[in-house]
Amino acid sequence: MVSSLLLSLLLVVAAPAGARVQRVPPLDDCGADPSFAAFRVELEQAIARKDSGLLLGVVADGIEVDFGGGAGRAHFAETWALDRPEASPLWGELGEVLRLGCAGDGQGGYWMPSLVMAEDYEDGFTAAVAIRPGALLHAAPDPLSPVVATLEWDVLTVPQWEWDAPWQRVEMADGRSGHVRTEDIRSPIDYRALFEPVDGRWRMTVFIAGD
């Protein structure tokens, strides 16, 4: 005989019948482009070494930095404190952007991460993608609470982002809801980069967050 506690857990974990799951796994549209593949390796090396000189060498003169009109290589360097590269948060942000795929923009450029080009979001401000396969959706903001689902690139809704909180309450496309660690999800309007050919060389022309 199933105990009442076990039955309640089964009801929490089980997905509804005919459940619809939305997923946005990373794309790699640029992997077959030899020139961009070489450029990406160069950029990854700059990130690993925190080499601000090499990085600024691939930043476009007029790079878009924010939605307040901020643009240009000097403004980019100032925004990310590249005069103190060891302490700059840029390396973590840009490294995560490169990790999460690459999607063509239809005009010869590439957006990273690829999830920014997906059309699976009802509202970009409340959307999120589970970016760490195997991340757990819990019934409460507690790792010891029942597991509602195991996530893998799932598209989620975050009714109210709590940006500085370690957990977010989210809803799945199939109706299940719960809490997930903030580090395990990403908003499609978080930092993203656009890389385009400029005068015969690849340049980062946009690195921006928000909408």
Describe this structure in words.
The chain has five helices and twelve strands. The protein is an alpha+beta fold. The chain has two domains: 34-104 and 190-208, no CATH class; 119-186, SH3 Domains (SH3 type barrels, Roll). Helix 2 (34-49) runs antiparallel to helix 5. The longest helix is centred in the first third of the chain and has 16 residues, at 34-49. The chain is globular and about 50 Å long.
Topology:
Blueprint: H1 4-13, H2 34-49, H3 52-58, E1 59-64, H4 73-79, H5 90-99, E2 103-104, E3 110-112, E4 127-130, E5 135-138, E6 147-151, E7 155-157, E8 167-172, E9 177-181, E10 185-186, E11 192-198, E12 201-208
Parallel strand pairs: 1-12
Antiparallel strand pairs: 2-3, 3-11, 4-7, 4-10, 5-6, 7-8, 8-9, 11-12
